[in-house]
Amino acid sequence: MKDTIDAPDGIEWLGVSLKTILAPESTGGAMSIVDTVAPIGFSPPRHIHHAEDEIFVILTGEMDVLINGEITRAGPGDAAFVPRGAEHSFLVTGDRPCRHLTILTPGGFERFFNEMAEGNCRIPQDMDVIVESAARHNTEFTGPPLGAD
Predict the structure, then answer these.
(1) Residue 43's closest CA among 14, 81, 82?
(2) What is the pTM of this model?
(3) Of 10, 26, 55, 97, which residue is least crowded by CB atoms under 10 Å?
(4) Are 101 and 110 in contact (CB under 8 A)?
(5) How many CB atoms lie within 10 A of CB 20?
(6) What 3-state DSSP class applies to 19?
C-alpha cells in the first residue's frame, strides 16, 4: 500500500505531501489540520513556533519526535504534543513513509508550507527565503534536522 494524498488541492514540498483538511477560516482561526505524508528519513530543521501549539497524530509509519531535547518514538495511534515555544523536530524512521495529521492551534502556520511549495524552496540553498517566511509565521529555526548532527 502506498501512502499518498491524491487531492487536487494538496501540495508537495521537499518530498512531503501536505493537504489542509481543516483550514483556519473554517474555525474562526482557532485551529487547522494538515494531512501530511513524509518520506523515510525526512526531518525538518529544529525549530520553535512562537504562536502555535502543534500536535502530531500518527496514522501510519513511525517517527522519532524531538521536543526540548527529548526524543520519543511515535507510531500508529500515537500522538505527540509540542507546546508553543518548545524546540522540536521529527525524523521519519522505519520502512515506510509516515502519514500523520498535524494539528495547529491557532491555525495559520500551514500557509508557510504553501509559500514554500509555491516558491519551490530548497534546503539549504534557499534558507534565506525560508527563514524570512518562517519569521512572518512566528517560527524560528534553531538547529539542523535530526540525524544531521
Answers:
(1) 14
(2) 0.89
(3) 26
(4) no
(5) 23
(6) strand
